[in-house]
TrEMBL record:
Gene name, Swiss-Prot/TrEMBL: bioD
Pathway(s) where this gene product acts: Cofactor biosynthesis; biotin biosynthesis; biotin from 7,8-diaminononanoate: step 1/2
Record carries keyword Endoplasmic reticulum: no
UniProt EC number: 6.3.3.3
Main subcellular localisation: cytoplasm
Residues where substrate binds: T41
Protein name from the UniProt record: ATP-dependent dethiobiotin synthetase BioD
Family membership: Belongs to the dethiobiotin synthetase family.
Subunit organization: Homodimer.
Reactions performed catalytically: (7R,8S)-7,8-diammoniononanoate + CO2 + ATP = (4R,5S)-dethiobiotin + ADP + phosphate + 3 H(+)
Annotated localization: Cytoplasm
Keywords from the named record: ATP-binding, Biotin biosynthesis, Cytoplasm, Ligase, Magnesium, Metal-binding, Nucleotide-binding
Protein function: Catalyzes a mechanistically unusual reaction, the ATP-dependent insertion of CO2 between the N7 and N8 nitrogen atoms of 7,8-diaminopelargonic acid (DAPA, also called 7,8-diammoniononanoate) to form a ureido ring.
Amino acid sequence: MSVMVVSGTGTEIGKTVVTAALAAAARAAGRSVAVLKPAQTGVEPGVPGDADEVARLAGPGVTPVELARFPEPLAPETAARRAGMAPVGPAEVAEAARKLAEEYDLVLVEGAGGLLVRYDADGGTLADAAALLGAPVLVVAPAALGTLNMAALTAEALRARGIVQAGVVVGSWPQRPGLAERCNVTDLPVVAGAPLLGAVPAGAGALAPAAFRAAAPGWLAPVLGGDWDAEAFARAVRS
């Protein structure tokens, strides 16, 4: 079963674009891909959600799947409760991912917000779904000041649950990085206890899909299907 969970240190940090880059790299290698969004919040019916955006950017061969959609832009459990709708729990997420993995070469499960955001009234989280699946978690982090603490906390939560952290990807690397961003290239893998596996440039999601697909492998390390060189990136940042 080839399932990867994409989580992050918070919200609005580039998880969807990173997920699209992973999907694009997998498609370039000829793999079929399904993108599972357990709970889409803050999007009205009929409007494309995050999984649809991944499929748009990554192109043909990527199937978007949503388990639930709640109208208000809140944590999934809160949004479901306020809408009077049934929430989606970790067991449902794991079951859906397993079924997709029977059909697709790669299943990417994109969470909402950070790792421990509540999905149901029992306190179920994306981490619980990852544990049920035995799947690694790729953590998306911002580049700016303040990211180290959140990356460390996320890594600690994963270790406490016995979940493998695949690595860290910077979700939006600025065109003109400041001192904090440059230092974080060195410090993020240290505090996370996991390798830095990529950096997606700021604004990548605004690229035309063809341009996005062509560039995506260059943002991800070989273990994620790309050709991004962490050492070369670090040298360029320091220079």
